């Protein structure tokens, strides 16, 4: 059986991106090995998984994600079928209010049966995010 170990995100500003994930989702910063000149911040979402925020190497040819900050497409309504990470929350409405209070542009959607609510948005580097909540009613 496999389990999720971590997700890695490159960033030109690892401190800014780590702060976003700490403030929005409650990640905690954990000890990271010394990678020399490479700036890396390791985060952990208790009971879930870790995220490694890695300094972007501008000399590599790796492209940014399809809905990145440098892409022409910054509309969260494109994310349901695009690249994104999904988190689950127990109080969807409260979480949605906190995004709006932070001024984060969102796209909301509910599945036809009304049992799953979804909100899509971007982190500061343009990575796609989804937060979903399933009601049992």
TrEMBL record:
Domain (VOC) ranges: 3-134
UniProt cross-references to PROSITE patterns, sorted A to Z: VOC
TM stretches of this protein: none
InterPro entries listed in its UniProt record: Glyas_Bleomycin-R_OHBP_Dase, Glyas_Fos-R_dOase_dom, VOC_core
Family annotation (CDD domains): VOC_like
Domain of life of the organism encoding this protein: Eukaryota
Full protein name: VOC domain-containing protein
Lineage: Eukaryota, Viridiplantae, Streptophyta, Embryophyta, Tracheophyta
């Amino acid at each position: 059986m496999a389990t999720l170990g971590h997700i890695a995100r490159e960033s030109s500003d690892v401190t800014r991106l780590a702060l976003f994930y700490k403030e929005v989702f409650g990640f905690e910063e954990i000890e990271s090995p010394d990678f020399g000149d490479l700036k890396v911040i390791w985060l952990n979402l208790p009971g879930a998984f870790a995220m490694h925020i890695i300094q972007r190497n501008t000399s590599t040819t790796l492209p940014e994600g399809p809905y990145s900050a440098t892409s022409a497409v910054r509309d969260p309504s494109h994310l349901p079928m695009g690249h994104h990470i999904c988190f689950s929350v127990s109080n969807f409405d409260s979480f949605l209010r906190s995004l709006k209070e932070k001024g984060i542009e969102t796209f909301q959607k509910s599945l036809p049966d009304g049992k799953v609510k979804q909100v899509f948005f971007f982190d500061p580097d343009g990575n796609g995010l989804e937060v979903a909540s399933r009601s049992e009613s």
